[in-house]
Amino acid sequence: MGEAAARGRKSIGAKRNPESADAIIEAAEGVLREAGYAGFSIEAVARRARAGKPTIYRWWPSKAALLIEVYQRQKRVETPDTGNIEDDLAGFLKNLFAHWRDTPSGNIFRSLIAEAQSDGTAAAALAEYSKGRRGHTGRMIERAKARGEVAADVDAGIVADLIASYAWRHLLTDRLDEDDAMIRAAVRYVVRGIAPTP
Amino acid sequence: MGEAAARGRKSIGAKRNPESADAIIEAAEGVLREAGYAGFSIEAVARRARAGKPTIYRWWPSKAALLIEVYQRQKRVETPDTGNIEDDLAGFLKNLFAHWRDTPSGNIFRSLIAEAQSDGTAAAALAEYSKGRRGHTGRMIERAKARGEVAADVDAGIVADLIASYAWRHLLTDRLDEDDAMIRAAVRYVVRGIAPTP
Amino acid sequence: MGEAAARGRKSIGAKRNPESADAIIEAAEGVLREAGYAGFSIEAVARRARAGKPTIYRWWPSKAALLIEVYQRQKRVETPDTGNIEDDLAGFLKNLFAHWRDTPSGNIFRSLIAEAQSDGTAAAALAEYSKGRRGHTGRMIERAKARGEVAADVDAGIVADLIASYAWRHLLTDRLDEDDAMIRAAVRYVVRGIAPTP
Amino acid sequence: MGEAAARGRKSIGAKRNPESADAIIEAAEGVLREAGYAGFSIEAVARRARAGKPTIYRWWPSKAALLIEVYQRQKRVETPDTGNIEDDLAGFLKNLFAHWRDTPSGNIFRSLIAEAQSDGTAAAALAEYSKGRRGHTGRMIERAKARGEVAADVDAGIVADLIASYAWRHLLTDRLDEDDAMIRAAVRYVVRGIAPTP
DNA sequence: TCGTAAGCGAGACGGTACGTCCTGTCTTCAG
DNA sequence: CTGAAGACAGGACGTACCGTCTCGCTTACGA
Lengths: 198, 198, 198, 198
Prior knowledge:
The structure is a homotetramer of 198-residue chains. Chain A is mostly helical and 198 residues long. Chain A has two domains: 3-59, Homeodomain-like (Arc Repressor Mutant, subunit A); 75-193, Tetracycline Repressor, domain 2, CATH 1.10.357. The first copy, chain A, is 69% helix and 0% strand. Chain A is built from ten helices and no strands. In chain A, α5 packs parallel to α8 and α7 packs across α8. Chain A is elongated and about 70 Å long. The termini of chain A are far apart. The relative contact order of chain A is 0.11. At the A-B interface, α7, α8, α9 and α10 of A face α7, α8, α9 and α10 of B. Chain A binds a DNA duplex (31 and 31 nucleotides) through α3 and α4.
């Protein structure tokens, strides 16, 4: 599939051809997987997808936009619900690190963050995406609050921030193989810090 | 000084000309300050420093190397010693955010992180640098341990990691104007989490 | 009329819509008038005519074909009949230069000649057109022959060629503002050269 | 030589590399010869010369500039001096037509004229070149004047114009295989027209 | 009377070329 | 014998057109 299927692909009239879109996204993923962010250029993607550059620019105005869509097509990492906040967060981080380590997702997200340092639209998109994820992690905290594991006056957003920051930095400094015990220790420090005072 | 002084600078014979090196580093800093990472190219630096590109490549084999040297020339942010770990860490983060916000340092460090995502030498340099900083922040924790504010079995490295991660993410997502109260809350969560159990 | 009227123009069933054809030709003329040959593209014409590109390609298989039809819609320059061959030819050239200078015709014809240098159909069309014009100018010579102003054995086609060539070159080298006296001198040299030997 | 020799060609320091310039001009000539004006693009020339596009743009700011230099590298057509103006001019045209027909020169010059219809710099360059050629042909006339074959008050420039125009139009309408007798007749008409009145 | 066939505006498609910017390497030459 | 200067091959950028295609619609015409 993908590059091969692209052979002979044509327009399907005055509307977007989903085959082309798919081929382009798959090609983008392939380029990132095989050549990394350094080799990720619109030209390379177009070549691999057997698509014209303007077709890419028509739908994704910047490298960042394409990167985001590629990232969003990736499988989501599952967030456990063990009934215990420490296990939930440690499990989530473990899953996330494994996901980033073993699929192209990690490379893609790293690239997106890097791109955001020089491209405003990437920055905006990343901010948007982060907001969504913050809510997601926030729900874990809220559940724990309901169970009485977390003090009622704790700001779930800040906790989510701490956890996400920890993950980002491990991604950006190539430490996704972090020891489980270390992850758990980091989580424990935070979880203790937000526990209700007895 | 700087770009201006470069006018007419000439070779000083069979050794590295420190005037040139200075002019190049200052030009690099200037480019980063004014055009950001997006506009940071060897060409731009050479143009601004009135230097030849090969002169730059001779001494800094990659953009990353130049970036690192530029970053290391920056003033360090001071780490307070208030006798209280929460105040120490919150003050440190406040100072750090202000430093990154108000000097080119923020732009430079962001660029270095971005560069590290596609350049191995930048990644290595960044890892090296981070190790040093971890020790540095770690000492704050160790002092607190000595004062009995922090449990003895706490891994200072992990705490330093959490704090640094929080800072990085704010830098990378353009949130250096974070409210003091928020910073303090985040710090408090961690500080409480590592306090000795009574 | 023209671009404005095009708004909302639709198919009128299974036959060519003359409104569209007109709008396209007028748009083509407009583009040539305002942007010259350099700006003359099928896209630009379609945009201005509010027509689809395929509608243009359906009826004019190439830029050349459209150019030819546009040129043929132009008003012809009038050929004086003063009873004197020198006045006839000089007047004709003067009129022709003015026509080319003051209407889009000049731009269009220049474009057609240029196009003919890389497009065979344009070349063929131009040859066809030139043959017609040669006959036309030839008649001026024949009239003069009948009046005894021109030797009987003169080849009218060659004379027409000389006159047309002179005109073309002035068009192609932007010398349509040539002095009347110069034009008349050129004509006189030829007219004398074909006069009957006394 | 040419494309082959280009393999591995490098800069020779802070000055123009004549090997590159040669390779580019030869490649340009080759492209024109084999693909004609329609296939003449800077990309194609760069590809064939194994040169970077910027190297071409550095020295020839437009297609026209390159075209002109290519044309000027061509062998000049020789202008006979038979002592008789009719023979001189007819011989010159015959030679010119043969030259244009049998070498790439014809294609190149046609292309240059076409280019001049949409590119101002080409037009200017062509005007400049034409001025030079007009003087050249003019000298044939002046010689004839000195011999008493041509009236003293004849404007040599206008005669040169007539002759050059005749040649251009034959080039542009693909009639370089014109019969010698026809050429001679055209020349005779003009020569008679500028002979001194007895 | 109605189905069908063709023309229409629209615009996406795979491509090619544009002219610019940058990369990292190379050579020359002034000092 | 260094270092500045800048040319070089190459490749990516984002844009403009090319000529082709299909869509969804409208209308004329033949069955």
